[in-house]
Amino acid sequence: MTPVPDITLNDGAQIPQLGFGVYKVAPDETAAAVRSALQVGYRHLDTAAMYHNEEGVGRGIREAGVDRGDVFVTSKLDNGFHEPDSARRAFDDTLAAIGSDYVDLYLIHWPLPTRYGGDFVSTWRTLEEFAADGRARSIGVSNFQIPHLQRLAAETDTVPAVNQVEAHPYFTNAAVRDYCTRHGIVFQAWSPLARGTVLDDPVVGRIAEAADKSPAQVVLRWHLQRGDVVFPKSVTPDRIAQNFAVFDFELGDHDVAALDGLDRGPAGRVGSNPDTFDVISR
Ligand code: NDP
Fold this sequence. Notes:
By secondary structure, the protein is of the alpha/beta class. It contains 10 helices and 10 strands. It has an 8-stranded parallel β-sheet. Strands 1-2 form a two-stranded antiparallel ribbon.
């Protein structure tokens, strides 16, 4: 019996609130990391074509002996494949790499407003095809700012199931989060540990010491109590286990407020700004 609560998406599907992210996990280390995570109890994996490790994710599931149907797998469309025919080919390649005839969730990785003539709408319509034929059980977006979400709302019929954006105590991404909450879009917080940088913060350290938990557990608990979906990354087995052991304590209002108070606004970003990010690596 998993301790991880499910969150219901706007299409009725359910996603485990805590998962395991594999950004920057080397392709040849991914299957081992995924096996570790599945053995601990994770049932939600977050990968992307851009991470070059979808194959390791699929292999890790098979090697762990866990039924594919028991694992929620997300992948994402790489930046060089936004045009509909390219997106169709890229999605076929993703399914082949994972070794599955479907993904649970497929996302546009970045909106790329300065590329493709600013057209992410036809890309979204292509993802709608994947949802219609059942090969993507749910579809969503990543790194979409409010104007990008508003444009999808005005020009298409499908509200994204999720928006996966940077969020952690140093950058709560409050306006985007508020938009998502008001429009039934589940908020997924990427780099939930701010890539480790927030773990040395004295406020986090004080709360962790008082709770007899690690700084990472405190930060993940803060996300979970806010209702965010998170998938911390680690290649270190004891950290993978530690990050999953966050359901036996609760932060009080005072601690939550102290963590909320660490927000630095956009200056707190550890990743790229979606308004300007335009990297196409292949
Ligand atoms: P995280 O915020 O998850 O931080 C990962 C870093 O924290 C690693 O250096 C890891 O080290 C360290 N760490 C993890 N757990 C602990 C712990 N318990 N104690 C101390 N250090 C710890 O960063 P990510 O950027 O990887 O974000 C998580 C996931 O979000 C990604 O893997 C990916 O799935 C997704 N993501 C999505 C993006 C998007 O554009 N959609 C962009 C970025 C991320 P080590 O591995 O050495 O143990």
